[in-house]
Amino acid sequence: MKNLLFSLCLFVFSAGLTAQEYTVQGTVTDGEKPLPAAIVRVQGEASGTQTNSEGRYSLQLQEGSYTLIFSYGNRKEFTINLSGDRILNVDLSDAEEVLDEVFLSAVRVSAESPITYSNLSNEEIEDRNLGQDIPTLMNYMPNVVTTSDAGAGIGYTGIRVRGSDATRINVTINGVPYNDAESQGTFWVNLGDFASSVENLQLQRGVGTSTNGAGAFGASINILTDRYKAEPSAEIASSIGSFNTNKNTVKFSTGLFNEHWEFAGRASTIKSDGYIDRASTDLKSYFLQGTYVGESTIVKALTFGGSEVTYQSWDGIDEDQLEENRRYNPAGAYVDAEGNEQFYDNHVDDYKQDHFQLLWNEKYGGGWSSNMALHYTYGRGFYESYRAGEDLEEYGLDPFTANGEEVTSSDLVTRKWLDNDFYGITLNANYKDDLLNLDLGGGWNKYEGDHFGEVIYTRFAPSEPDQLYYKNTGDKIDYNGYAKANVAVTEDLSLFGDLQLRRVIYTVDGNIEEEVPFIVDDSHTFFNPKAGLTYEVSEANQLYFSYARAHREPNRDDYENGDPEPEELNDFELGWRYGDRTLQINANLYYMDYRNQLVLTGELDNVGSYIRANSGNSYRAGIEIDAAVRLAEPLVIRPNISLSRNKNKDFLSNWNGELVNFGDTDISYSPEIIAGNILEYRPVENLELKFLSKYVGEQYMSNIETEGSLLADYFVNDFNVQYTWTTAPLFEEVVFTGLINNIFGEEYVSNGYYYTYDVANEDLPGGAETIEGAGYYPQAGINFLAGVTLRF
After folding, report:
1. CATH code for the structural domain at 104-222
2. Model confidence over 164-221: pLDDT tens digits?
3. Which of 371, 446, 298 is nearest to 107 (CA)?
4. Over the chain, what is the mean pLDDT?
5. How many CB atoms lie within 10 A of CB 748?
6. Secondary structure in 3-state letters for 63-117
7. I need a labelling partner for 732 at 20 to 30 A (CA). Which of 146, 198, 343, 523 fits?
8. Rounded-to-integer distance, Cα 62 and Cα 355, Å
9. Are 599 and 557 in contact (CB under 8 A)?
10. pTM of the prediction?
11. 3-state SS of 399-458?
């Protein structure tokens, strides 16, 4: 046996002598910024690797000649003759664009475009990815306000940009529309732990560039999912935290095999009791991807989705409850036979959603490339609600006699179902040379939704199991075509143009609750031109100006609550970008002029959705500044501030039984000051400390500026620590992450609603007195999350 082992060792040693291996290593950058997760591979071979968090890579190759390909949504090639160890640093800032990033040119913009934008990289997401939703992870981006119904950033979370809520923010995933076609909202709760499958994210503020799906009236969020990996990898991540929060994630990638194929996937679970009483969340999600990589072709087949069971917490609490018990949740409350308050155990939102995408990217000669996506989304689920003292006839139930008396009401349990399909195709062709970057594209999408309600239990009255009490269908067809181009007029000046034609057809047929007919047959044709210019004053200084026109159709709730008009917007942006090794500044002025803007009234409907109404003429104007300042090698600060005025012009509303002109009023949910800062400090290698701060100024929840609708300002600070153990036994690396949210225990309310109703009062000229009220969504005090990631 000893002789056998000796012979084997001698063979391995002699083979090493005949085939000497050398090391190629270096750093991949975008200008002076290191690029993590850039792909480095050997042409014609399966050999390859990725850069680490500092942009560094290392390859072991035998002596010989090789072509190395460096790619990160763009590409450079280097041919080397390797006869010894070599250092090769690569700058991809001026590299040729490739197809590694799906639909990059179709929905993304770069510094050459006159569009106001910010990027959130995979590395920045990973720093705080411990179970909270994507809106919470975006909280420190410029002019962003986030909120959480459950108070801890998990479950139903919301985001506003420039005061515009999620129904006005266009979201695409790999260029495919994600907003719900009818409500126009985005429900991140259906994609638990989706942040673990996001490669990077771009937030375009304002109208932005033409994209697929609903028009952007406040911002666009363009998400790119995980890119393929050159080498096999696996990781296990777990975290725990306050309110019995826990997250468990498993990821894998086969790496490229047979030079062309990669399979990758993720499975996750997240559970949390929530800060608010009974605001529990149970999320399960998955992500699976198969990729074919050719010299000029990338084809990806993806499926992702999940299921969620979330105890409802969107009712909010009134001012007295806020003082007495800010964690109180009135959802599901009823009074038992002894007169005691009880809570229905299954007062939940239960929904499942599965997404399927087939993405094909092809690069041709002569500067041309194309992208195509086929997509299908299947969603189904319900709200289950306990309803006390309901009128039986409204639910199609007959009154009954008990103890000689007719009973016309009863406690009920209902389920409001939504079963829907969304499918379509998006197409894009791109031409690029030294002077012109041209995109021609469009998409066709169809939504089919079945809405129906069932009574599954009556406390006092006899009923049939799962008795149907309303049913309607909603169908929507949305198609568009666009052409957009960047033209280099001179070496320093480029012009941008973007023309989009969009057609929307929406029909609803059937009844809603109380057997009220709900019929819609509406269509709109929108022409949305955009134009701008970018001027490079110097290598470090750049100015841009843009104009964009946008239209947006009403959503389903708008039709239920009235006779809405489509919205119109003219958006003007003037910006300055500065960047060198130690300082980066982005500053822009904006003026957004609205016609028939659908603003939030502050009221909620019976499933917690905000009610909107056309406000006539209104505008948003402001300045946004964000920066990154490297004070010393281990210390960076990244502040941002937004100052704005957001006004309705000559706003009309009913008050005390009369139509009153309130003059120019603040638009609801639009604070004048939003500021943030991230202080980064790296005292030693592999250790990163971050102190994060967010200030949101006071804001009204109504459009009439009453004191009862005012939300106070708040200032919240978080502390984030991450240590990467690169020499851990058995693992490639082990990452420890900690996050203390609201470290100073600020008691604050980030969101709420406002309502009014009239009562008769003959002493007033209008014959009525308006009574007002408000609900609040308090957020958690000091709380923590901690996790560990094992990478193989």
Report:
1. 2.170.130.10
2. 999 889 999 999 999 999 999 899 999 999 999 998 899 999 998 887 777 788 899 9
3. 371
4. 89
5. 16
6. CEEEEEEEECCEEEEEEEEECCCEECCEECCCCEECCCCCCHHHHCCCCCCCCCE
7. 198
8. 44
9. no
10. 0.87
11. CEEECCEEECEEEEEEEEEEEEEEEEEEEEEEEECCCEEEEEEEEEEEEEEEEEEEEEEE
The closest alpha carbon to 104, from 472, 339, 430, 383, belongs to 430
At residue 101, φ and ψ (nearest 5 deg) are: -105, 115
Assigned CATH class of 19-97: mainly beta
Residues 465/391, Cβ–Cβ less than 8 Å: no
In angstroms, the CA 65 to CA 83 distance is: 9
Give the strand pairing for 598-604 and 583-595: unpaired
- Letter for the amino acid at 753? Y
pLDDT bracket for residue 44 (50, 70, 90): low
Closest CA to 666 of 706, 695, 696: 706
| Domain edges within the chain | 19-97, 104-222, 223-316+324-350+406-459+470-791
Report the chain's C-alpha Rg in angstroms. Answer: 28
Q: What is the CATH number of domain 223-316+324-350+406-459+470-791?
A: 2.40.170.20
With the CA atoms of 653, 657, 661 and 666 taken in that order, what torsion angle do they form, in degrees rounded to the nearest 10? Answer: -40
User: Tokens representing 446?
Assistant: 């169809």
Mention every residue, 6+ apart, whose C-beta is less than 8 A from residue 168: 184, 216, 217, 218, 219, 552
Q: Which long-range contacts (CB under 8 A, 24 or more apart) does 184-189 make?
A: 184/214, 184/555, 185/555, 185/609, 187/156, 187/351, 188/133, 188/134, 188/135, 188/157, 189/133, 189/155, 189/156, 189/157, 189/281, 189/283, 189/308, 189/310, 189/349, 189/351
Tokens of 683: 């005292």
Tokens 């309705």 belong to: 648
